[in-house]
């Protein structure tokens, strides 16, 4: 009853908030429409002035973003949000499932997932690591490197930029995985009104109200979304409310500012992992301990960010951004974790295009600094409530990075890229509840320089080859610094990576292909010693990650489009004294997502799709236990009514796992399962169907 009352209060409060912001934005949109519709007095009519050039208050349009990323000497891609709005949009897998080089697989149909690029953060199925998430270039990660999937709203995204590996140097990132930048709609480019609803299996409900408008030099965008579902499994209920807004102001043709506001309130029950026997008997059941302890992951996030952009022409672009985020986590698992995070930072980035020795030259440079303070309190879990205190930590993470990259056109065909990032990071933790005479405080510092050398060869405007070699450095998050018996300090994970690839973007055929190999020194993994004793998260000696990333789009007839995203993942130990050359657990060797789409303009489409993972995937690094592969078949149909300057309706029916296959979407990752059944399996959703509609007023 208390939970139901709290939910009602939250919904009521959210309703009042929606009413206020909707009213405000509706007034702005109505004012704009009225001004546009009202005839002007002839006495006030001015001579027509035509202004050519870019508009500093707006983000790059989709084509400009693609051109900018295509100029990276390495693997990048852009995901158009319109491309995934024609089906269910609940998780980041719905948005990034067809992004080349991105492995993402939700656990038990939840928003949290295993998100990995080139084997980054292999052991995480929640609270990711190894990739930098950004909102319009401003970091979303906590200062220690971790990130929350619920902080991103795919429906409040205009397009997504994916930088794999060292190709994220443009944003100062030097992690193994790279960076993913979510670019938001604004009042300058979003529809004035958008209403969306989605409904489906497992009591799934999702809705969005979005408003946008501009008046004079000011513009604004507001999105409110709500999501809830019972879930395929027992004890898998989810409830999420997000408010995302931004407002911009253009001071003149070269200077503009924008402020971003985010509020997230999310509550997720955790059904836990099953044994093979339990999975075979009933994949919808929850682990008994998760029910007894009422395991959940609930948090609230409030974030404000601001960006100031000076861009007097298309050659010079200077951006300064600052952010502050406040997060409160209530996380009953084997114990109750209660954390309060306060993260803030500032970034500056300059892009300057000129000439060097008579040839085109583009310089990008900047710096970023961030600090995060965490109050980490831990208690005995008494049926989901906090019992006696077990520990208390006061933690601080600091990062300072400086980076620069220069691209020089050696001639009309060859482009040389040279760059580097210098990083200094500290992780400080103070034990505020010492038990057993063991003080778990620590104070560590990490620093390093990550250089990059890249080369592009341009066949023409549509086709290019690229290659690069780079270093990366990734300091551990607090999760790795307190991960096992006696472990309080590990080194940063470092890697040397090389890649070669091709980009082709023709009218009927697009190819994004890359072959990479990374030698990693000190990969952060949970391991055991030679006797099988757990060591917690430590630095492995040497590991190797190599693979193929392939994205393909082929319009082979007027109304037919075939798209595919294929990954070959070969991640191994390299002569380890315990694991030899074993395969690293966590990600299957092969994964293919493919879709064939037949459409009649915008009026109707039908798109069968297949997700295929043919090989068993290891659960443990000792390679004694594996989870079977799978093949999933789906079908989407939908269409749009109305377009152009008129209001339009769109609709879809999205069927998934239509053969109702019992499959494993992910597993836990352990050092050595000894070939025995255990609680490792995260069952994927059964057969499901979702329907949705969207109404837009341009």
3D architecture notes:
It is globular and about 65 Å long. The protein has 2 domains: 2-33; 63-438 and 458-697, TonB-dependent receptor, beta-barrel domain (Maltoporin, Chain A), CATH 2.40.170. The protein has a 22-stranded antiparallel barrel. The protein has 6 helices and 35 strands.
* Number of separate helices: 6
**Tell me, what's the shape?**
globular
Rounded radius of gyration (Å): 25 Å
Beta-strand content estimate: over 45%
- Biggest sheet character: 22 strands, antiparallel, barrel
- Domain unit count: 2
CATH level 4 superfamily of the largest domain: TonB-dependent receptor, beta-barrel domain
Number of strands: 35
Query: Ends: how far apart?
Result: 44 Å
Mean pLDDT: 89
The CATH topology name of the largest domain reads Maltoporin, Chain A
Low-confidence stretches: 1-53, 483-487
Structural classification: mainly beta
CATH architecture of the largest domain: Beta Barrel
As a percent range, the share of helical residues equals under 10%
CATH class of the largest domain: Mainly Beta
Please describe the structure with a list of short key phrases separated by commas or semicolons.
mainly beta, 2 domains, disordered N terminus, 698 residues, Maltoporin, Chain A, 9% helix, 22-stranded antiparallel β-barrel
Topology:
Elements: H1 2-37, H2 62-70, E1 76-80, H3 92-96, E2 103-106, E3 113-116, E4 132-135, E5 138-139, E6 159-164, E7 178-183, E8 193-200, E9 204-215, E10 218-229, E11 238-250, E12 255-269, H4 276-281, H5 288-292, E13 296-310, E14 316-332, E15 335-356, E16 359-382, E17 385-409, E18 414-431, E19 442-458, E20 463-474, H6 478-481, E21 493-505, E22 509-521, E23 524-528, E24 534-539, E25 542-557, E26 560-573, E27 590-600, E28 604-613, E29 617-618, E30 626-627, E31 630-641, E32 648-656, E33 664-667, E34 681-683, E35 688-697
Parallel strand pairs: 4-7
Antiparallel strand pairs: 1-6, 2-3, 4-5, 6-7, 8-9, 8-35, 9-10, 10-11, 11-12, 12-13, 13-14, 14-15, 15-16, 16-17, 17-18, 18-19, 19-20, 20-21, 21-22, 22-25, 23-24, 25-26, 26-27, 27-28, 28-31, 29-30, 31-32, 32-35, 33-34
């Amino acid at each position: 009853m208390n939970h139901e009352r709290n939910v009602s209060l939250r919904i009521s409060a959210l309703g009042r908030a929606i009413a206020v912001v909707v009213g405000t934005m509706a007034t702005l949109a109505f004012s704009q429409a009225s001004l546009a519709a009202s005839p002007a007095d002839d006495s006030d009519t001015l001579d027509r002035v035509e202004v050519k050039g870019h508009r500093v208050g707006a983000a790059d349009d989709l084509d400009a973003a693609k051109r900018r990323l295509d100029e990276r000497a390495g693997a990048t891609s852009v995901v158009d949000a319109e491309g995934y709005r024609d089906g269910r949009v609940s998780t980041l897998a719905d948005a990034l499932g067809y992004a080349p080089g991105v492995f993402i697989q939700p656990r038990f149909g939840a928003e949290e997932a295993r998100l990995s690029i080139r084997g980054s953060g292999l052991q995480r199925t929640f609270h990711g690591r190894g990739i930098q998430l950004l909102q319009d270039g401003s970091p979303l990660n906590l200062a220690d490197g971790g990130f929350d999937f619920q902080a991103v709203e795919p429906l409040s995204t205009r397009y997504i930029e994916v930088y794999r590996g060292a190709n994220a140097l443009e944003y100062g990132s030097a992690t193994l995985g790279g960076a993913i930048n979510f670019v938001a709609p604004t009042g300058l480019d979003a529809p004035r009104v958008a209403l969306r609803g989605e409904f489906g299996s497992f009591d799934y409900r999702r809705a969005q109200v979005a408003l946008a408008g501009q008046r004079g030099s000011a513009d604004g965008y507001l999105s409110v979304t709500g999501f809830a579902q019972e879930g395929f499994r027992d004890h898998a209920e989810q409830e999420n409310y997000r408010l995302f807004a931004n407002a911009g102001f253009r001071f003149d043709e070269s200077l503009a500012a924008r402020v971003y506001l985010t509020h997230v309130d999310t509550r997720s029950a955790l059904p836990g992992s099953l044994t093979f026997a339990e999975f075979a008997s009933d994949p919808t059941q929850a682990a008994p301990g998760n029910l007894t302890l009422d395991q959940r992951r609930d948090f609230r996030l409030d974030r404000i960010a601001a960006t100031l952009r000076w861009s007097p022409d298309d050659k010079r672009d200077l951006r300064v951004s600052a952010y502050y985020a406040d997060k409160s986590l209530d996380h009953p698992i084997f114990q109750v974790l209660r954390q309060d995070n306060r993260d803030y930072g500032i970034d500056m980035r300059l892009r300057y295009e000129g000439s060097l020795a008579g040839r085109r030259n583009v310089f990008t440079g900047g710096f970023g600094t961030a600090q995060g303070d965490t109050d980490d309190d831990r208690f005995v879990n008494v049926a989901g409530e906090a019992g006696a205190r077990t520990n208390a930590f006061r933690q601080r993470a600091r990062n300072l990075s400086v980076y620069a990259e220069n691209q020089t056109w050696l001639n009309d065909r060859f482009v040389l890229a040279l760059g580097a990032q210098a990083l200094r990071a500290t992780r400080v933790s103070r034990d505020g509840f010492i038990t057993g005479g063991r003080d778990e405080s620590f104070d560590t510092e990490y620093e390093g320089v990550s250089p990059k050398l890249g080369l592009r060869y341009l066949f023409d405007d549509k086709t290019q080859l690229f290659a690069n070699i780079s270093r990366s450095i990734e300091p551990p998050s607090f999760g790795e610094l307190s991960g096992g018996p006696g472990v309080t300090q590990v080194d940063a994970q470092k890697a040397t990576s090389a890649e070669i690839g091709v980009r082709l973007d023709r009218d009927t055929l697009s190819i994004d292909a890359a072959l990479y190999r990374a030698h990693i020194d000190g990969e952060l993994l949970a391991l055991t010693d030679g006797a099988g004793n757990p060591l917690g998260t430590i630095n492995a000696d040497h590991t190797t990650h190599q693979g193929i990333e392939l994205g393909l789009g082929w319009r082979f007839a007027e109304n037919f489009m075939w798209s595919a995203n294929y990954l070959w993942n070969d991640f191994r130990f390299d002569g380890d004294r315990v694991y030899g050359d074993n395969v690293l657990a966590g990600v299957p060797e092969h994964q293919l997502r493919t879709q064939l789409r037949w459409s009649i303009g915008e009026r109707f489409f039908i798109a069968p799709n297949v997700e295929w993972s043919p090989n068993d995937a290891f659960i443990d690094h000792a390679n004694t236990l594996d989870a079977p592969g799978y093949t999933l078949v789906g079908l989407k149909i939908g269409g749009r009514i109305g377009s152009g300057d008129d209001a339009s309706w769109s609709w879809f029916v999205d069927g998934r796992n239509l053969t109702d296959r019992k499959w494993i979407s992910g597993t836990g990752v352990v050092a050595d399962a000894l070939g025995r059944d255990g609680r490792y399996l995260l069952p994927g959703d059964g057969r499901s169907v979702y329907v949705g509609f969207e109404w837009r007023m341009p």
